[in-house]
Design brief:
heterodimer, A: about 425 residues, mainly alpha, 15 helices, 2 strands, B: about 375 residues, alpha+beta, Penicillin-binding protein 2a (Domain 2), Beta-lactamase, 2 domains, 14 strands
Chain lengths: ~425, ~375
């Protein structure tokens, strides 16, 4: 095997640690500023912020050094900066929530380290079999809340109320991307031909493609009943990944058509979509309050202007869902255009790095996995920001690393680990 | 396979650029418009906690001031030290119900301009004084307190005017309200009770009009909209009659001070032309009879006055009174209008209006040192 790259400079791994500690320092500095704005001087929260950020991302770096030492060093520091900005924003809005979020960061880092260890023995491999239990798990996760309380989230409640909230949508997205990569790489011919004559050529193979597509469709429908946005993202992921695998523009056209159909038919599926479209067409004459998420988010962005009000000095608490779907508007209020552009640039850097891994990868499965994961990072982020600024109706949704949430944070860390592992395997 | 991946990256890059352009639009170009949108909850929030300048009487008694809010560090609470006595002139500044009176008319002066808007930051960098200004009124505290006290619960208004300048020396109404209740807790309940009351306690009746039409009027300071039946209308015309027809525009704001107590500006007396009702006022002034006012006997010049009953458009009648001192060349004109009390009451006596007016004249004679 030809070594495309030499072993990476050991200094770069140390530089990553320095960067991650710097992000911890950034979070601590932000927490200090927030407390100063409240005319409080407290050492403990700042110290805790530093420790949480440094330990969570440090843990991921240690795992990478052990099980993916040749991975690109660009991803983790960038993600840690975003997580620091997100942590300060969450802390500023709700101190208790930031305490919970600390645990989610540490738990997610641990999960991704465990995943890195699990794949370190045999490598990522390129057989689809390993993904089936995961898809079954995702389908199960979707099914349980659908049958249950009517919420699309899974709650593990303690006496004091819901503490652990899982959003199966995030897990479904991750698993389906991996599954698409497997399907598309192993059955490239089938998808390139649009499923017409491959079937007649090799019936045995078709039996593995069609059932998986049918099962996926069932999962999509299951998700759509509760959370049609997630199922649209999954469908979009499939279309773009199929386009990447086959270079057939028909997949993109089909995806766009499905999106438009969803917007048109959406109001029949759910009243919430109708409200979002009404708000989007004329946000300024809708009733004030949490329902008018677009206007309330834009007020936050406007309050921030160029340089922001400063951490702790704005009123991002007025923005509905300011720790989750509209966290970007909360960042824009206190850090201004400077902050939002830096956040977007950080995501762009991560996405470009991820696609760079896909472009340099030699195995088709690796290409599609890295491309899919990068898309999963950049696509929903772009959709979410487009929803906040009003380019799209009501697509504002939580963003990995920036928003509060266990499932979301875990998904973000897993994406990092997958991209790192692909880049490691392709460099060795 | 790299071809389609590159194209996907390119499209994502274009989308991110579009997002940056759109963000720049909202956060740089449209930011001021968003900040000033009255439906933006931040507009009221920043206003309610801001420090405002003091409002003082002519004899430098503090009538309204901002004090640090004990419940919210860094924020201020508005305090009206004499409550209902100055309710219609000073008015109030409420985050929920808007501004009234001097608080509304001079809101831009009274408000701190230290904020985070681009112009606020630029002005701060250029060294401009952004602290709130203070406003000194023309009202005399002794006179105002007396007017409010003697009017008591009787429905009506009292106005005292300096005929030479048009300065309003006192202006009181009844029923009235306590502006402190509109900036405190439970303000919404108080506001509902005030706006729904048939007596219209929020109305500055001294300036003009009958009750229901004026419920929404912002009144007190836009003195141009005068009704000749109102106390101020009577006082202005009688004052002109006492000065051979020279009518002065009535005003309540004397001076503006900056935070270092240096005078920024002052209001200059200004003649006005309004012939409506002047002939009637002149003949009533000519028919004035000497008044018995406490303390007037020891001073040169004697007080005089007249009274009567006027029919109201809305039905019923109102008693009016005016008194001047000294009769030959008045330095003060007091006008009183008393409205019918309740249903079934035919009309209050002219004696009640006259006794209110005499008490205000007596207070003024006591305030003015004998040398002048």
């Amino acid at each position: 095997m030809v070594r495309a790259h030499g072993p990476p400079d050991p200094m770069s791994r140390q530089a990553e640690f320095v960067f991650v500690c710097g992000s911890g320092g950034l979070a601590a500095f932000g927490v200090v500023l927030v407390n100063l704005a409240r005319e409080e001087v407290r050492a403990t929260p700042a110290l805790a912020a530093f420790v949480v950020l440094a330990v969570a991302f440090g843990l991921l770096l240690v795992a990478l050094r052990a099980w993916a030492p040749d991975a690109t060093p660009l991803l983790v520091p960038t993600a840690s900066i975003l997580a620091a900005v997100g942590f300060v924003t969450i802390y500023r809005l709700d101190e208790d929530l930031a305490g919970l979020h600390s645990w989610w960061l540490l738990l997610s880092a641990t999960m991704s380290a465990i995943w890195l260890y699990a794949v370190s023995e045999k490598g990522l491999g390129h057989r689809g079999g390993g993904w089936w239990p995961l898809l079954a798990l995702a389908a199960g996760l979707v099914a349980i809340p659908s049958l249950g309380s009517g919420s699309d989230l899974i709650w593990v409640a303690w006496e004091s109320g819901p503490a652990l909230v899982l959003d199966p949508g995030e897990i479904v997205k991750l698993v389906t991307v991996a599954l698409f990569a497997t399907l598309l790489s192993e059955r490239q011919a089938f998808f390139s031909a649009g499923g017409r004559y491959t079937a007649s050529l090799n019936p045995a193979r078709v039996t593995t493609v069609w059932p998986s597509l049918v099962l996926l469709g069932l999962v999509l429908v299951g998700v759509a009943i509760r959370d049609s946005g997630t199922s649209m993202i999954v469908l979009g992921m499939f279309c773009v990944m199929a386009y990447m695998a086959t270079d057939r523009a028909a997949y993109l056209v089909g995806g766009l058509g499905a999106g438009i159909l969803w917007l048109v038919a959406g109001p029949w599926l759910s009243g919430g979509i109708q409200t979002r479209i009404t708000v989007w067409t004329d946000p300024w004459n809708q009733p004030e309050g949490p329902g008018n998420r677009l206007a309330e988010g834009l007020y936050g962005l406007g309050a921030g202007s160029l340089s922001g009000t400063g951490p702790g000095l704005g009123d991002p608490g007025l923005i509905p869902d300011s720790t989750t779907s509209l966290v970007f508007a909360a960042v824009g209020e206190e850090l201004g255009l400077a902050g939002t552009v830096v956040v977007l640039a950080a995501y762009a850097l991560m996405v470009v790095t991820g696609f760079g891994i896909a472009l340099r990868a030699r195995q088709v499965f690796h290409k599609l996995l890295a491309g899919g994961m990068s898309l999963l990072l950049g696509g929903p982020t772009a959709l979410s920001v487009a929803g906040v600024v009003g380019l799209l109706p009501g697509t504002a949704m939580p963003i990995p690393f920036l928003s509060y949430g266990l499932s979301l944070t875990m998904a973000g860390f897993v994406i990092l680990a997958v991209l790192a592992r692909v880049s490691h395997e392709e460099r060795v | 396979m790299n071809g389609p991946i590159r194209r996907v990256v390119l499209v994502l890059g274009i989308i991110f650029l579009v997002l940056v352009v759109d963000l720049t639009y909202w956060q740089a170009i449209a930011a001021d418009r968003l900040r000033q949108n009255p439906r933006n909850p931040r507009v009221e929030l920043t206003r309610s906690g801001q420090e405002r300048g003091e409002i003082l009487s002519a004899d430098a008694v503090v009538l309204a001031r901002s004090v640090p809010d004990p419940l919210d560090p860094g924020a201020f609470r508005r305090e009206y030290l004499y409550g209902s006595v100055y309710a219609h002139v000073v008015g109030f500044s409420s985050a929920m119900f808007g501004d009234r009176g001097v608080e509304a008319a001079h809101a831009t002066l009274l408000r701190s301009r230290r904020d985070l808007t681009t112009s606020g930051i630029l002005n701060a960098l250029l060294g401009e004084d952004l602290r709130p200004r203070s406003i000194q009124l023309t009202l005399n505290h002794e006179l105002q307190a007396t007017a409010a006290r003697v009017l008591g619960d009787r429905r009506g208004s009292v106005v005292a005017l300096d005929p030479a300048t048009g300065q309003v020396l006192a202006m009181a109404n009844s029923p009235t309200f306590n502006p402190n209740a509109l900036v405190g807790t439970n303000a919404a309940v108080v506001w509902d009770a005030l706006t729904e009351s048939p007596d219209g306690p929020l109305v500055n009746r001294a300036v003009g009009g009958s009750l229901p039409e004026l419920l929404t009027a912002e009144g007190a300071i836009t003195l141009d909209e005068m009704d000749p039946r109102s106390a101020l209308g009577i006082a202005t015309r009688v004052a002109a009659a006492g000065q051979d027809g020279l009518m002065m525009r009535p005003y309540v704001t004397a001076r503006v001070f900056d935070a270092d107590s240096d005078q920024v500006s002052q209001t200059d007396p200004e003649p006005m032309t309004d012939t409506f009702g002047y002939e009637a006022a002149l003949s009533l002034y000519g028919e004035s009879r000497p008044l018995a006012v406490r303390g007037a006997r020891d001073r040169p010049g004697e007080p005089a006055g007249n009274s009567g009953v006027a029919e109201l458009d809305a039905g019923g009648s109102a008693a009016w009174f005016f008194g001047v001192w000294p009769a030959a060349r008045p330095t003060i004109v007091v006008a009183v209008v008393v409205y019918p009390g309740g249903p079934g009451e035919i009309g209050p006596g002219r004696a009640a209006a006259a006794s209110i007016g005499r008490a205000v004249l007596a207070a003024w004679i006591e305030v003015i040192p004998p040398a002048s």
